[in-house]
Amino acid sequence: MKTVFSPLHSRRHVKTELDGGLLIEPHEKPSRAETILARVKDQALGEILEPEEFGLEPIRRVHTDSYVAFLENCWQEWLADGKQGEAIPVFWAGRGMRHREPRDIDGRLGYYSMGADTSISDGTWEAARASVNVALTGQKLVAGGERAAFALCRPPGHHAHADLFGGYCFFNNAAIAAQAFRDQGYERVAVLDVDFHHGNGTQSIFYGRNDVLTISLHGDPDLVFPHFLGFEDETGEGDGEGYNLNIIYPPGTPFSVWREGLETACERIAGFAPEALVVALGVDTFEEDPISFFKLTSPDYLALGRRLEQLGLPTLFTMEGGYDVDAIGVNAVNVMQGFEG
Ligand code: SP5
Ligand code: ZN
Predict the structure, then answer these.
(1) Ligand 1 centre distance from Cα of residue 117 (Å)
(2) Which is nearest to 261 in space by CA: 304, 306, 320?
(3) Which residues cross the membrane (predicted)?
(4) I need a surface site. Which of 198, 202, 302, 332 has the fewest CB within 10 A?
């Protein structure tokens, strides 16, 4: 399987994440991508390609123009305002307040975000753009006839809504790739999100549509991020009714239980008969993950890859979360190796 990777991921190198009242070293750090790349090389998974440049148009198919402009200018505006640290949102429009874009940078940070876990600094824009190009280059490989491709995206994307960043995500790489398939004539596309966290951005982007089936398996949002979306009664709306599926699990969930939801998801995907599959691949379901509560083990990722292969679909993997850096390479590449059999 071919892997797409951009060294520009390292342009995102924030020093802070607000967690537990402290500014800690971010969980989403450059060594994550480097460790996965090293495992891809070590296992000789296949050719490693740098992405092509696709420009902003495919991004604008999913994200709003004003959000894209905000991300491009955010850091410069923050500096121009004389701030000392990294850009972190701290104010939001709570219940009863106005959802209106303010001019001030603190107001705009809140308007375009869902959390304070995601700082912005120099290079975030460049890395987020490169991550989209990685996903779209993988999409092009699959559209060109590859059975599957591994888009080693960083930063991740599945939490990003049309006009919201957060959860370490800026552009929704999986959604942009799914939309690219649609724009190239694929009639139906499925996005299966196996990251520990709900794929709230992807769900939101396609919630009213029946041409993109979205399924997410994740930790109960009653207990974990993203807290305010990802419940099982969210099944889609309007034309999209019946085209979103959320499967949630409690703390301590092992693969033996998790795989039952995977089976349900795979059966739903098969019934939808998509022409392509995008897998939002997080490996923060791992038993040692520092911010998550499932109990998957490294061999379980081989079984996941095998099951996905059985769907028989052209498949694009986009890298999402996974924060036990020691195991992230083995676990992510295990999915690819399981897929390849
Ligand atoms: C792509 C992805 O996996 N994003 C996840 C974003 C989660 N951000 C909030 C993390 C809060 C971590 N709190 C740590 C508590 C440890 N017990
Ligand atoms: Zn995650």
Answers:
(1) 8
(2) 304
(3) none
(4) 302
Q: Measure 118 CA to ligand 1 centroid, in angstroms.
A: 10
CATH of the domain at 161: 3.40.800.20
Q: How far apart are CA 106 and CA 68, in angstroms?
A: 17
Interval 124-153: pLDDT, tens: 999 999 999 999 999 999 999 999 999 999
Pairing of strands 189-193, 148-151: unpaired
Rounded to whole angstroms, the Cα distance separating 118 from 105 reads 15
Residue 87 located in a structural domain: no
- pLDDT tens readout for residues 179-229: 999 999 999 999 999 999 999 999 999 999 999 999 999 999 999 999 999
Q: Give the total number of structural domains in the chain.
A: 1
Query: Under a CB-based contact definition with an 8 Å cutoff, are residues 191 and 215 in contact?
Result: yes
Ligand 1 site, residue 19, Cβ cutoff 6 A:
yes
